[in-house]
Amino acid sequence: MMKGFYTLFKQALCQLLTPATLTIFLIFPSVLTFLMGFLFDGLYNTTLVSSYDFYGVTMIVFIAMMGATVPANIFLEKHLKSGNTRIFYSPVSRVSIYMAKILACFVVMSLCISINMILFQVTSFVNLGGSRISYVILLMGAFVLFLILLSTALCVTIHSEELTNVIISNSMSVLGLLSGIFFPIASLGDFFEMIAQFSPMKWTVDCLFQIIYDGRSEYYWWIIFGLVVLSLLLLMIVHRNYRPDDYI
Amino acid sequence: MNKILEVKNTEKSYKENKAIHNLSFDVYEGEILGLLGPNGAGKSTMISILSTLLKSDAGEINVFGYSLMSHTNHVKSQLGIVPQEIAIYEDISAYRNVAFFASLYGLQKSELKRRVHDALKFVGLDDKENELPKTFSGGMKRRLNIACAIAHHPKLLILDEPTVGIDPQSRNHILSSLKQLKEMGTTIIYTTHYMEEVEEIADRIVIMDKGRKIAEGTLHELLERYKDTLIYRLYIQGLTLDIENQLRMIQGVENIERLEDSLTITISKKEDIFHKIILLIIQENCHITKMEMEEGNLEMVFLELTGKKLRD
Q1: Contacts of A2 in chain B (CB under 8 A)
Q2: Which residues in chain A have Cβ-Cβ distances shorter than 8 Å to B106?
Q3: How many other CB atoms are there within 10 angstroms of residue B259's CB atom?
Q4: Which of A67, A89, A170, B101 lies 20 to 30 angstroms, CA to CA, from B44?
Q5: Which B-chain residues 70-89 have CB contacts (< 8 A) with chain A?
Q6: Cβ–Cβ < 8 Å for A107, A148
């Protein structure tokens, strides 16, 4: 069983490690951070928090959120679907099949994001908390896991890669706005600020800034716990809804 | 002969549409079983159930003595499936396709390499192993589809309409490959709506229509009814309804079907009446432009059992 899982995991990694995926997760964070930081440089106090510091965090969160379309592609994208069908004919368990894909997505996305964060910190391009960067990376890891499972659960429930991508990309754009990724949410008014309090994306972004600038967050472990619990619930949905007949 | 597959009273519905009705049949070791039926007969649904993509609503299926439901992975390890939809990755080479799928059956290292090369050679793609399937023709993709299913040397190979939409050369290559596999000891289930294919390769045939089995037996057994029958197809200039009716009146003419200017006339071999048919046509000042003769075939069996043609 483990050999089958390992083979599937390697195959999923190969399918993910495309120039497009690597560009999105390795190059875009730097490009977006530089662009947004440059455009809004005048709005931030450069001694404490520069625009690059702000957008260095939020753009990585944004890239992770938009990257949530990747799992849907690896499960049901047209040009992979036909080959994926044949996997079901082989003596590997259904659990191995979906776990291999989920794990491959997690490894690629979290590794690329971690590389970006380490490079940002090492080059002093963005302040990511210095010695506290490990906490930042851990929180981003939990966040990425949640996003991957959210996308996978949606995809295997509605049985359509295209519809999943539309829902995910649109909802992530809205949630991104409400999380204060592009500008402080308070500028949209009390109502939107109240709505935003329910967003795991907002919790994550706020917690990241608390870790980086306050050195601590009283909600840090609670947020990680919450993201992990949500992830497990979503995994149960995947287990229940992932069916071979999606490939017929 | 050992029975390696038993399908008993299998049922499958899609919402209110019953795709399989109480279907039962057996497959014996070393034979080629042809599953013949028109589009919508339930052949692909049955294959999807055997390949475990779908679960049946009722019934029992035993493969190599093991229940398909409770010993799924054990059964799957000895099955090879060639689905109607080509199930390969177009963006990796032919070699990597076969190697990936074969490795899921436990093959590794030198044995894996050898089996992959053998499978590609068997289907005639050994000179294309490093090329991407997206550059292949339809026939070549179907052959790669087969290579992916046979590399792990399955005991039971199931093919669902493997020759749909491909050129005659690839089709003939596939059929002769299957005969070779049979000689090597592989048991094969072959579904198709082309009776010629089943007539060419199948040891036994199950005919399906609307989810039910309507006939089963060897080709000889199924055509037993027609062993004393001859069919003439005559293309006649100046053919009229009156001439057709007169021909029907000739004793020994069992059936006449008209299609534009042609008549398909079924007659009993026992009655020596063909000259009477020709004489009548000549007397009516008609001209026969073309004539074909054939003996009983599965198309006739299907028509008699269902009242419709195997292929519309």
Answers
A1: none
A2: 3
A3: 9
A4: B101
A5: 72-74, 76-77, 79-81, 83, 85-89
A6: no
The parent domain of residue B289 ranges over 228-295
Contact B205, B49 (CB under 8 A): no
User: Taking CB atoms and an 8 Å cutoff, what residues of chain A touch B189?
Assistant: none
Q: What pLDDT digit, counting tens, does each position of A130-163 carry?
A: 888 999 999 999 999 999 999 999 988 988 888 8
Asked if residues B199 and B184 have their Cβ atoms less than 8 Å apart, the reply is no
Whole-number Cα distances in Å, B162 to A133, A174, B158, B174: 56, 47, 10, 8
Assess whether B119 and B34 both reside in one domain: yes
Indicate if B211 and B138 belong to the same structural domain.
yes
CATH number at residue B40: 3.40.50.300
Q: On the CB side of B46, how many CA atoms lie within 13 Å of its CA?
A: 41
Two tokens at B279? 């004489």
Write out residues 143-172 of B within 8 Å (CB-CB) of A: 148-149
Mean pLDDT (whole number) for B234-246: 89
pTM of this prediction exceeds 0.80: yes
For residue range B64-81, what is the model confidence (pLDDT) as tens digits? 999 999 999 999 999 999
- Could you give the number of structural domains in chain B? 2
pLDDT at residue A188 tops 80: no
Per-residue pLDDT band at A248 (split at 50, 70, 90) = low
Q: What is the DSSP letter of B185?
A: T
Question: For residue B181, which amino acid is it?
Answer: L
Instruction: Give Dmax over CA atoms of chain B in angstroms.
Output: 77
pLDDT at A246: 66
pLDDT tens string A13-65: 998 998 988 998 999 999 999 998 888 888 776 677 888 888 999 999 999 98
Locate all alpha helices (DSSP H) within B228-312, ordered by sequence: 241-248, 274-283, 298-306
Residue A247 to residues A88, A239, B52, B80, B144, Cα–Cα distance (Å): 9, 16, 12, 17, 19
**The residue type at B66:** Y
